[in-house]
Amino acid sequence: MEQEAIEIQEISSKEDSKRKRKVAKEEKKEITIYDLPGVGAATAEKLMAVGFTDLMSIAVASPAELVETTGMGDAVAKKLIAIARSSLEMGFESGEELLRRRERVIRIQTGSKALDALLGGGFETGAIVECFGEFGSGKTQIGHALAVNCQSVDKDAVAVYIDTENTFRPERIMQIAKGAGLDEEQVLKNIKVARAYNSDHQMLLAEKIEDLIKKQGLNVKLIVVDSLTAHFRAEFIGRGTLADRQQKLNKHMHILMKLADMYNLSVYVTNQVMAKPDMFFGDPTQAIGGHIVAHASTFRIYLRKGKKGTRVAKLIDAPNMPEGECSFYVDETGIKDTE
Length: 339
Ligand code: GTP
Ligand code: MG
Description:
- By secondary structure, this protein is an alpha/beta fold.
- The longest helix is centred in the last third of the chain and has 21 residues, at 242-262.
- It has 15 helices and 14 strands.
- It has 2 domains: 2-87, 5' to 3' exonuclease, C-terminal subdomain (DNA polymerase, domain 1, Orthogonal Bundle), CATH 1.10.150; 101-337, P-loop containing nucleotide triphosphate hydrolases (Rossmann fold).
- It is globular.
- Guanosine-5'-triphosphate is lined by residues 133, 135-141, 167, 272, 330-332.
């Protein structure tokens, strides 16, 4: 395999991007909810316990939500939200600043140039890419390939893999690493895998990633959540609980987005499809998680099985790329172009 295909495209020089990363981290020192005037330790603990861990989460909450989850009075809740809103710098950035941020973007390659090109050169940092498609369409294989190839971003780049379906295979990682000409042992060492046993566990694991970065100093460049929706789908059955499910999923996506944004890392999530029996034309499948997941994903790719064992990827939603389609295939060494 060509060395080129597994190299991560870097837009600015390495030194430059390291320096920028450092500056960005310093800029983002957050005010915590403990710093809110009028919030005592007990209230702060209560808020933290139910997931209001930062000012933003309070600022965008509704009073009813705070009342319901913490048992505080309506007036207190309203006041808290108002304080959180006024203490937040609501982060308007100039177009120029945003452009500079875009320069920090790194792209992780899949092994298929066509698939990378569909996304403008690979899976971007600072973004969430969602792949949805039927069983065996290649979602998990793409996750494995990215976990290997992300390690060409930096020598110490780490991939975090949240495995909800017990489909992570170290043997597969070694095969792909070997195909990419990387040190198999080293690649395995730099992938941190956690098995998530239910949706709460899955959410907790995502929250703990910040510790890996802050406390353990790991240079996390990729988070894979495979599958994003399987536990949620299995646990919340029936319409009555759909709103709860969507609220939790929303929170989960929000945490992932924040990590992507704050630490300039790439998030890859997989999603199943369900049959849409009332659909007579077009593709009778639809992604799980509805508009919550669709909305929170920066890029969405629909995967399906093509002719002669190929896979077809269709870009559905993308901020600055045209919709498009490409094919690739999966072999022993990973994700490959069809030609
Ligand atoms: P679900 O998780 O069941 O929804 O499917 P998925 O979309 O995650 O599918 P996955 O990525 O696991 O793709 C499985 C397919 O990849 C298999 O059916 C094979 O076609 C292909 N595959 C996996 N490993 C290998 C391999 O070592 N060699 C070859 N040739 N193909 C492989
Ligand atoms: Mg899978």
